[in-house]
Write a structure and sequence with these properties.
493 residues, alpha+beta, Alpha-Beta Plaits, Serum Albumin, Chain A, Domain 1, six-stranded antiparallel β-sheet, four-stranded antiparallel β-sheet, 16 helices, 16 strands, 36% helix, globular
Length: 493
């Protein structure tokens, strides 16, 4: 990314008083280390000129942080540094991390357009649905953890919901679970929640409109982009299943039926059109309009159960984040139905009982493995959607952690344990139950907005189903449920 800066050195400063940054800026600009975008003729006379020196410089990517730190430290009085943009912030006060450079660029572009960290995160997620579509997309779901500039923290749950017609035994055939049904095809998908979550996050905390972010992503989808090595590898693995569905094959497979390879450009015109339709008509196009109707029609023709009513009934939820304290630091995580926040907190509670700094590497690694084994045993047994299943709050009780630590032997490996039983496991629960393959990105800005978003369509390429005429690849999140009591899902849970 390029950073454009307007630099002015005021007249009247004696040469001896000119700080090093004056010389560094103009000197390196004149030698070509920096590119002068616009400059008056006086620059050529540096250093003896007494008239103001004004130049707009393009600071190179390399060592840019060092440049700007020095600028900020040394500009007192004699040198003024301002972004060329009218906005009072700059890209050095913004951070983004994604799995794909095009998504990172989309986040930066959204921020530079006047957005904040929330806008940038949504822009990145929309782009990842194109360039990293085997992992996530508008046909899937997400968890968005937001720390707003006023210090408030919220968790937006945009995970998929099972169709209303789903039943306990829908994947059982001849008395046995058929995981092919829960992972591929018409029965595998839940109602996508990503779009509803994006819209809610923008409405509550964003500066930009949904359309502002969708339209650039649509342009990228229409133009196409080269697939990377991971995408190509996942595509090769899923090609046989994708070939079962003509709309999917038309996007991800070559005319001869072979998968695209690393470096091949894949364009998604139908997805671009869907993005533009949502930009024009809002999320109703997706949840209460053409997309929901097309999905219902395809499901009826192919043995599925998802209906337009399922889409119309979908609502993204705001949940209270989970906060635990570790050695004086508050650690904020996503609450159930995500398992991450609960079990990271559980592990940290166990780790806090050890003097980690005093441990040798081998015993410390052994201890970490034992801690994680116990947390994951509890995850497999206790975790679920707290709106529909009891998830004990006692899992993050420090005293419960201490009881688990007592079962750890630092001198030998213990068998994979059964789950524990936290205090008040049947009464103190997360959520409202008592009343009735994936990617991650992060953004932060100088105003104090932080975002951590996990998005998924579950396993690679989800259900492998693209709804014809939309370019939207549906998730296979139904496999996250128990396909049959005692039968693990794709993640061995």
């Amino acid at each position: 990314m390029q950073a454009l800066w307007h630099v002015a050195r005021f007249a009247g400063a004696r040469p001896a008083e000119r700080d090093s940054i004056d010389q560094k800026i103009v000197g390196e600009a004149l030698t070509g280390s920096l590119k002068i975008i616009d400059s008056p003729s006086q620059v050529g006379g540096y250093p003896p000129v007494e008239a103001p020196i004004v130049a707009t410089l393009e600071i190179p990517e390399k060592n840019r942080d060092d440049w700007l730190e020095t600028l900020a430290r040394q500009v007192e009085g004699r040198t003024q540094v301002k972004p060329t943009s009218k906005r009072p912030k700059d890209l050095t006060r913004f951070a983004v991390a994604t799995v794909n450079p095009l998504a990172t660029e989309a986040a930066v572009a959204a921020y530079d357009k006047g957005g904040n960290a929330i806008d940038a995160a949504i822009a990145a997620a929309m782009t990842l649905g194109i360039v990293d579509g085997h992992n996530s997309g508008i046909g899937g779901g997400c968890f968005i953890l937001i720390r707003a500039s006023d210090g408030t923290i919220t968790a937006i749950d945009g995970r998929e919901m099972a169709p209303a017609a789903a039943t306990r035994d829908m994947f059982v055939r001849d008395g046995k679970a058929d995981t092919n049904l829960s992972q591929t095809g018409a029965l595998a998908s839940g109602v996508p929640g990503a779009l509803a979550a994006w819209e809610l996050a923008l409405a509550k905390h964003g500066n930009l409109k949904l359309a502002d972010l969708l339209l650039p992503a649509a342009d990228l989808a229409e133009k196409g982009s080269p697939i990377d090595e991971v995408f190509a590898r996942k595509l090769a693995a899923a090609a046989k299943d994708l070939a079962k569905f003509p709309a999917s094959a038309a996007i991800f497979l070559k005319p001869d039926g072979k998968p695209y390879e690393k470096g091949d450009s894949v364009a998604q015109q139908d997805l671009a059109a869907s993005y533009r339709a949502i930009a024009e008509h809002g999320s109703d196009w997706f949840y209460r309009g053409p997309f929901a109707e097309k999905t219902e029609a395809w499901m009826k023709e192919n043995g599925g159960i998802m209906t337009a009513a399922d889409f119309a009934n979908y609502v993204a939820k705001e949940r209270k984040p989970l906060v635990t304290n570790y050695r004086g630091y508050d650690i904020v995580g996503f609450p159930p139905p995500s398992s991450g926040g609960v079990h990271v907190a559980q592990m940290l509670n166990m780790l806090e009982t050890f003097d980690l700094a005093a441990m040798e590497p081998a015993p410390r690694a052994h201890m970490l493995a034992e801690v994680m084994k116990r947390a994951f045993a509890d995850r497999a047994h206790w975790l679920g959607d707290s709106d529909f299943a009891p998830v004990p709050r006692g899992l993050i009780d420090p005293d419960y952690a201490k009881s688990l630590v007592k079962t750890i032997d630092l001198t030998k490996v213990t068998p994979v344990p059964s789950h524990g039983t936290p205090p008040d496991a049947e009464t103190a629960l997360f959520g409202d139950f008592d009343r009735k393959h994936t990617q991650h990105l992060c953004t932060a800005d100088s105003e104090g907005n932080w975002v951590a978003m996990t998005s998924t369509i579950n396993t690679g390429f989800g259900s492998k189903v693209v709804i014809p005429g939309t370019g939207i690849l549906l998730n296979n999140e139904m496999d996250d449920f128990s396909v049959q009591p005692g039968v693990p899902n794709a993640f061995k849970l």
